[in-house]
Amino acid sequence: MPTVTVDGEKAFEVEAGKKLVLAIEDAGIDIMHKCGGNARCTTCRVEVLAGEVPPPEAAETERLAREADLAPNIRLSCQIRVEDDVWVAVLQRSSVTGVPAGTRPQD
Ligand code: FES
User: In what residue span(s) does the 2Fe-2S ferredoxin-type domain sit (predicted)?
Assistant: First the structure.
């Protein structure tokens, strides 16, 4: 099983193919997902620090292109299915923004 490491917090194994946003949330880590995992809000964004993630599909590429000055390793965790070990930083948290995390994305 792949291992997800959330920078400075926790490392945990996840079932291959699980959405990264759900893997992080199910590990008890605060991560936002305002649009419910539909590649619309970008609140689920993570910085991929190391490891392998699948390349972005069209919906993710198009949505991230509308944001200014994003590094190429910023990705939408709702659009990533974990297949290999990956090390990420969670960039938007409900506990920081004071906004509810949003509807849980579908599996
Ligand atoms: S873009 Fe909204 S939850 Fe991922």
Answer: 2-94
